Amino acid sequence: MNKPPKYCQGFMRRGKPYWYYRRPGFPRVPLPGLPWSPEFMACYERAASGEKPEIGKTLTMQGSVSALVVSFYNTSDFKGLSDSTKVTYRGIIERFRADHGHRLVKEMQREHVQKIVAKKSDTPAAANNMLRMIHLLMRHAVESGWRRDDPTQGVRKVRNKSAGFLTWEEDHIATFEAHHDPGSRAHLALALLLYTGQRRSDVVRMGWQHVRSGILSIKQQKTGQDVHIPLHSDLLALLESSPPDDPSFLMTAQGKPFTPPGFTNWFRDMVRQAGLPDGLSPHGLRKATCRRLAEAGCTAHEIMAISGHRSLAEVTRYTVAASRKDLATRAMLALGKAENKSITVKPAE
Questions:
Q1: Which of 95, 257, 259, 304 is deepest in the core (most CB within 10 A)?
Q2: How many CB atoms lie within 10 A of CB 90?
């Protein structure tokens, strides 16, 4: 077989050679047929001329779920998401596409969606995430005129008893700090998470370049939200020993900044070394920050200024929980005072 033209690479897919054209900054363009065949060369010439193809167009059938996915990826709603969110959405959508991409969008009914969600009922979070992605696709189908109704309407979520990431309590924090001495990377990591309330993807990027006049300013990678956090005195004391030339406060043993997944894996090892439960994660410390702020009497909007949340719904849970705790304490004190007042003294004979 003759060698394929420049930029074409061949590899085996399902036992057959598969060829594509790759141009920097452009997605891979599948090339049909065998190298040098008419259809192969026609597609190659279009790609070589700089024509930007519609992603997946050659692999889809008009009106199919796969074609709808391609169309959704080109919407402003999807393109406006952060890179990390795009990866998450794609992972779920592509699983749905692999199983149902050949089906026609107009033929999907509510009972079909219910069956898809029911198959994942053993993992409620995954089932509900799948339902959400199907809803986004079907909403796009309605808006684009592919169908008149949304078959996900009326499909109930799978009941999930999990409360999400476990929030660190004060005894967890004290145990971790007692095991990992000040000056250690683990102690600094805990302080950065606890005193900034940011996600792991932002904590691993923090460095002296983000600090001005005692205020840490950073744009959140997930949402693009700007946050400006005055440095807590305990955190500032720990940061004073950080080298000013390092790209981030937290560096790996190899002298490089952490990646978010790598940081999570390393931090979980630190949690285990401290004898704490495996369920405690970096994100649980972000929730602990919100809890502390709420217990200190901060309003939901004040908490949002630190955490960067855009919705009141998430932070309101912390303020409501803190208010209930405070009200319960006052109620029991009031009960104790009432009981003391009601004590009667038996008169002397």
A1: 304
A2: 16
The Cα–Cα gap between 239 and 63 comes to 57
Q: Give the whole-angstrom CA distance, residue 49 versus residue 47.
A: 5
Helices (H) and strands (E) in the chain, counts: 14, 6
Angle between helices 260-273 and 170-179 (to 10 degrees): 90
Cα atoms found within 13 Å of the Cα of residue 40, Cβ hemisphere only:
14
Please report, as a single letter, which amino acid is at residue 334. Answer: A
Residues 41-57 pLDDT 10s: 666 676 666 665 555 45
10: Cα within 13 Å, side-chain hemisphere? 14
Of 142-156, 247-261, 334-348, give the lowest mean pLDDT range. Answer: 334-348
Place of tokens 């919407």: 75
CA distance 189 to 214: 19
Exposed/middle/buried for residue 100 (C-beta within 10 Å: 0-12, 13-18, 19+): middle
Residue 2 — φ and ψ, nearest 5°?
-65, 155
Could you report the per-residue pLDDT of 271-281, keeping only the tens digit for each?
Answer: 999 999 888 99
Compute the distance between CA of residue 227 and CA of residue 216 in angstroms, rounded to an integer.
8
Q: 307, 327, 62, 123: which is closest to 197 by C-alpha?
A: 307
Give residue 31's identity as a one-letter amino acid code. Answer: L
Q: In the chain, which ranges are E strands?
A: 8-13, 16-21, 29-31, 211-212, 215-219, 226-230
Q: How confident is the model at residue 345 (pLDDT cuts 50, 70, 90)?
A: low
User: Contact 293/302 with Cβ under 8 angstroms?
Assistant: yes
* List of domains in the chain: 54-143 (1.10.150), 170-325 (1.10.443.10)
Instruction: Using pLDDT thresholds of 50, 70 and 90, give the confidence band for residue 4.
Output: very low
Q: Could you report the per-residue pLDDT of 93-104, keeping only the tens digit for each?
A: 999 998 998 899
Beta-carbon neighbour count of residue 48 at 10 Å?
16
